[in-house]
Automatic annotation (TrEMBL), chain A:
The lineage of its organism: Eukaryota, Viridiplantae, Streptophyta, Embryophyta, Tracheophyta. GO terms for biological process: autophagosome assembly; protein folding in endoplasmic reticulum. The keyword Membrane applies. It is a multi-pass membrane protein. The keyword Transmembrane helix applies. This is ER membrane protein complex subunit 6. It comes from Durio zibethinus. Belongs to the EMC6 family. The chain crosses the membrane at residues 35-56, 94-114. Keywords: Endoplasmic reticulum, Membrane, Transmembrane, Transmembrane helix. One of its GO terms (cellular component) is EMC complex.
UniProtKB/TrEMBL annotation, chain B:
It comes from the Eukaryota. Belongs to the membrane magnesium transporter (TC 1.A.67) family. The chain crosses the membrane at residues 42-66. It comes from Durio zibethinus. GO terms for molecular function: inorganic cation transmembrane transporter activity. One of its GO terms (cellular component) is Golgi apparatus. This is Membrane magnesium transporter-like isoform X1. Coiled coil: none annotated.
Length: 120, 106
């Protein structure tokens, strides 16, 4: 049985699950969050490069970023085979997590690609 | 994992080729002294293709989702981390014959 000092997985005995808050394996949840983070960061970078190549300036670029993030969210939900609750504990994680950090990467690569393609 | 990575690299290569085409297109526009309104259609198609390859790579390369329910099929086995307190060395393997090949050192 899992020891008390074991921090890698938090699983309770099945007799306690019935009258307890729903519990989940934190290690697997962390792994899932890591997967989402990598996917979103990579797609932010690719979205930034595409926005720079297409020559978006100003507001259009941010609209494009939201579009790319929406497509990534849909892709992640499809990857979890539409049963989000068996991999995450709330909807917010798969939809909103990594949004702001991705925005910084997006703007960086957007200006980078725009400069390379259109200015130099 | 290898295939997804290759597809991702391929998508990035397609994007860089599209960037190069756009740079050449802009050079052409400078010669003809026209305004840049948008990249040509084949560049847009190339960007779309590269985008789809990169999305596919972004969804498959980082790894699979693991189920967080303790009672799901793949979480059945409880695994303890390698903890020195639980390792024992005083077990039955000592009755096995030794398999050291005795080589004379020169």
């Amino acid at each position: 049985m899992a020891g008390h000092g074991d921090s890698s997985s938090s699983q309770k005995k099945s007799s306690e699950v019935m009258n307890d808050v729903p519990t989940f394996s934190a290690e697997n949840l962390q792994n899932n969050m890591k997967v989402i983070y990598y996917s979103r960061t990579f797609m932010s970078i690719i979205g930034g490069v595409i926005a720079g190549i297409l020559g978006f300036t100003g507001f259009m670029g941010f609209i494009f970023y939201f579009l790319v993030m929406a497509v990534t969210s849909i892709g992640l939900i499809a990857k979890s085979k539409f049963s989000v609750h068996s991999y995450f504990d709330s909807w917010n994680r798969i939809i909103l997590d990594g949004f702001m950090g991705g925005l910084m990467s997006f703007v960086l690569f957007w200006t980078f690609a725009y400069d390379i393609v259109h200015i130099f | 994992m290898g295939l997804g990575f290759m597809i991702g690299v391929f998508g990035v290569l397609i994007l860089s080729h599209a960037a190069y085409s756009t740079i050449q297109y802009r050079g052409l526009l400078k010669i003809m002294e026209e305004e840049f309104s948008g990249p040509p259609m084949n560049v847009v198609l190339e960007l779309l293709l590269g985008f789809f390859f990169c999305i596919w790579a972004a969804l498959t390369v980082p790894g699979n989702f693991l189920s967080i329910h303790p009672e799901s099929e793949e979480n059945r086995i409880v695994s303890l981390s390698a903890n020195l307190d639980f390792m024992i060395f005083n077990h039955r393997a000592k009755v096995f014959p030794l398999e050291i090949d005795m080589k004379l050192k020169h």
